[in-house]
Automatic annotation (TrEMBL):
GO cellular component, one term: endoplasmic reticulum membrane
Annotated keywords: Hydrolase, Membrane, Metal-binding, Transmembrane, Transmembrane helix, Zinc
Residues involved in Zn(2+) binding: H156, H160
Protein name: Alkaline ceramidase
Amino acid sequence: MQLLDELAMIYLECILAYAVFAHRKPPLARILIAISISAMAIFITLYYHYLQDPVFHQNMFALITAVVVFRSMWIMEHILNPNRRGSVGKVNTTEQKRRDERDSHILKTMWRLNYIGLSYVAIAFAIWNLDNIYCGKIRRWRREVGLPWGILLEGHGWWHILTGIAAYNNLTWSIWLRYCRDGKQDLVELDWSSTFTSMPVVVRAKSQEKEL
């Protein structure tokens, strides 16, 4: 059960890796990418089952996540940063300025979404390590505190909550970035009223709703 619990994280990142690297590729290239990523996931699953070493899982998860995140950041900068992207097709100066301002705003918000997600991962990783290092002491504290407040000292539980929020942020970013890669920035926007007390959601842009 622990393997299934932890390997789900690997499989999620593999799906994101496919979404990032296979976008707009020819059919044959998409098939080869899918086969390669599936083979990697199978190898990690079998080797982790053989090793039974959580460190291997952590390293593989960190490696795949880093590749997906940095590749997505590169794409984000090169399609949204006006200084890197250049002009957008044959448009007049007014429209070019509007698109530059729109994309600069999207880019700024995406970076904020990334920073928040990475902060959740960093906090979760710190809690996870502290829980492993001081497991016996924290367990005694939980017994002394008792239910229901002892639940707040469940480090592994906080790991899942915080990484779950980070994964949600990452998925939201990936969805929004995919729209941008298709040149559909005007069709959607991010509904995120508060950084820490609300969850970001990609929704239909208000300008599009008025046209319906």
